[in-house]
Amino acid sequence: MRPHSIVVALCLFTIPVAAAELPPRKPGLWELKMNFARNAPPQVMQQCTDASTDKLMHSTSGNSGAPENCSKRDISTSGNQTVIDSVCTVSGKTMISHTVVTGSFDSAYVMNITTKSDGPLAPGEMSELSMTLQGKWLGPCAADQKPGDMIMPGGMKINVIDMQRRMPGGAGGPPAPLRT
């Protein structure tokens, strides 16, 4: 899987599953740094968000984290740490995820995510993934950004809300064109 594909897949599936019960992030521009356990260089991107966009991205409707797709979803919080364990079905495969989240959604947080499936979700994909996601609030979004905009590694701009709308069972509404 290409690095951009991994980042997009994680943003649209893994992170919403993990973040479904977490508080919303502070509106503005966030730097997201993903480190994978397999010695790949970190993937760094920026995301513009507001309260409604963050809520929509973390919504479980229409994605792999929807309650009807999960046989287990245990969430425990103690202080500034939340632990989420889930067993969900994605594309006919069982996915077991363990996520530990620490920090503040007003300034900086860290998510340690381990996901295993009983087989690759698509040809050429991995069936096990460990990653650390570090989120850091940078300030207000740039003048040319709208909520949901992500600046991917290499500078490509996409809007994750538009991408969710394009997916079956996505956020609804007509698909918007991808912007680069």
Can you tell me about this structure?
- This protein is of the alpha+beta class and 180 residues long.
- It has one domain (3-166).
- Helix content is 18%, strand content 42%.
- The chain has three helices and nine strands, in the order αββαβββββββα.
- The protein has helices at 3-19, 51-58, 160-166; strands at 28-36, 43-49, 70-78, 81-90, 93-104, 108-117, 128-139, 149-151, 157-159.
- A nine-stranded antiparallel β-sheet has the order 3-4-5-6-7-1-2-8-9.
- A hairpin with a 6-residue loop joins strand 1 (28-36) and strand 2 (43-49).
- The longest helix is centred in the first third of the chain and has 17 residues, at 3-19.
- The chain is globular, with a radius of gyration of 15 Å.
- The relative contact order is 0.22.
